Task: structure prediction
Amino acid sequence: MKNQTSEDSIVGKRKNRLIIVVISILFLLLFALILLARNNHQFQDKIFEAALKQRVQLPRAGLGGEQNLDIVFCGSGSPFPDPINKRGQPCLAVFAKNHFFLFDAGSDSAAKLAIYRLPLQKLDHVFFTHLHSDHFSGLGEIRLLTWVQGKSSPLKVLGPNGTKRTVEGYKEAYFMDSTFRIAHHGVNALNPSGTTYQTQEIQISKEEKSKVVFEDGAFKITAFLVDHSPIKHAFGYRVDFGDRSLTISGDSIKHPNIIEFSKNADVLVHEALNPMMVKALEKRFDKLGNKLAAKLMKDILDYHTSPLEAAQTANKAKAKLLVLTHIVPPLPNALVERVFLREALKIREKDTILAFDGLHLRLPLGKKTILKGDFRP
Ligand SMILES: [Zn+2]
Ligand SMILES: [Zn+2]
Result:
């Protein structure tokens, strides 16, 4: 019995020694690899070449066309910085036929559009929902990217009253930049017409409620009034292409026009602010003695829509997929996302999702399907 026990302990010790030897060899190999990576130029060049091939590619082809309505989220956040999920300020790209349109252009959207390899030289229109800075602050860099990718015609910008003034500001701000780049690269490479804008302000009276702002055969965009008071005016947009449709709420309280213009829509992209969470933020700022931040948290409660209200709107309109965007506050992890959605999921368990930057939705014409993809590298 005693002999058996000592044999077991010898076998056990040998096993432990073997494990230690294997781990040591692995560490040595790893160390050797790190040394090689740090000192071998050939090895480093190979790594660089591989990264270059993966990162530098032609813009994505095949979006839109005659058969698909394609939607790409290039910003699903809000003015709040979002360090974890990296949801940027509002931006939604829409492709149909040979058109590429943006709805809003928040400050992070130029980089996102480039990272997702969207064909920026083809961007023809930018539609603003309203003139809060988180919805237009990326315009200058977006125009710059379209230009350096070969666009040689003015970028068309449509939005509510004040759009002309805002765009004039961007023209002025980028004047020196454009001058320097043309002088450096030459007019043959960078056509000066690509630095310009063509602006149109959309006027919709309360009685009119809505206006068709773009039409090309079966592809139609309708702007409609929403309520984001005191901001005058704020629009939502409905996009129809053949038998497929998308409605964008813009920033608004729960509003009957959003219900009306998302009737039977395939996708309703609705803004969402969780009041319980924002009230908690207000309390937190108050406790920290930051009275201004606490007041701002209190103020923003009165001109947005809760996830529950967005779900009520989607249910009433019989919208097929509800995608919540303009997420306030930023959500640090999947569990907090559940808290954000808790009340909404009680009345709309299915077909309710949170947008993320890089989310791609494809709506093939003549079908009922909504294909989901992810453009993040
Ligand atoms: Zn706003
Ligand atoms: Zn906003």
About this structure: The mean pLDDT is 95. Residues 78, 90, 132, 134-135, 251, 326 surround zinc ion (ligand 2) (CB under 6 Å). The longest strand covers residues 65-75.
